[in-house]
Amino acid sequence: MAEPPIRDEDVEPYRLSPPTQCVLWDRPELNTSRGFFESIEDLEDESHFARSLLRCRECGQLYSYEFFEIVDWEEGNDKQYSTFVPVNTTEEIAAVKDSSYITIHRFFPRLNGTHWVGK
Predict the structure, then answer these.
(1) What is the pLDDT of residues 37-79, one digit of tens each?
(2) pLDDT at 6 over 80
(3) In whole angstroms, what is the distance from residue 63 CA to residue 96 CA?
(4) How many CA atoms lie within 13 A of 38 on its CB side?
(5) To 10 degrees, the CA torsion angle through 103, 92, 86, 108?
(6) Nearest in space to 81 (alpha carbons), one of 97, 94, 103, 65
(7) Which end of the chain is more exposed for a tag (fewer CB within 10 A), N or C?
(8) Half-sphere exposure (CA, 13 Å, Cβ side) for 58?
(9) In this structure, are strands 107-108 and 14-15 parallel, antiparallel, or unpaired?
(10) Percentage of residues in the chain with pLDDT exceeding 90?
(11) What is the pLDDT of residues 80-100, one digit of tens each?
(12) Cβ–Cβ under 8 Å, residues 56 and 23
């Protein structure tokens, strides 16, 4: 059975501490650099969806990372999304882990690709 659609009014914003000590706060484009993060734990790993806990090699800030891909079976123009949510506590990690690929957008601030949402 399909889940009912998620409405904006059903999703409460979840404010996190901004990672102002992290170089990504001012230079978010660096998240595309290979080796910038250290992998701490794989939380989920499927062919078009993955989550892991990462640590910034520069400052030690933890990030919950999500990769989500929408497959275009006809033309091959798959849309790919990367989201980095700065986390500091086991409760924040659990909250992000329990979110869906849609409700992860309730976390602020978060790094989508190379720009901050909620900065």
Answers:
(1) 999 999 877 777 889 999 999 999 999 999 987 777 777 777 7
(2) no
(3) 10
(4) 9
(5) 50
(6) 65
(7) N
(8) 13
(9) parallel
(10) 52
(11) 788 999 999 999 999 999 998
(12) yes
Tokens 């990504």 — which residue? 24
Torsion sign across C-alpha atoms 17, 19, 20, 24:
negative
Cα 16 from Cα 88, distance rounded (Å): 9
Q: Please give the Cα distance from 19 to 111 (Å, whole number).
A: 11
> Phi and psi of 91, rounded to 5°?
-65, -40
Residue showing tokens 């170089």:
23
Q: Which amino acid is at 35?
A: G
Distances (CA, A) of 6 to 3, 106, 108: 8, 12, 18
Mean pLDDT, rounded, of the chain: 86
Query: In the chain, where does DSSP find H-type helix?
Result: 23-26, 90-97
Question: What is the value of pTM for the model shown?
Answer: 0.83
Nearest in space to 88 (alpha carbons), one of 69, 115, 109: 109
Peptide bond into 4 cis (omega under 30): no
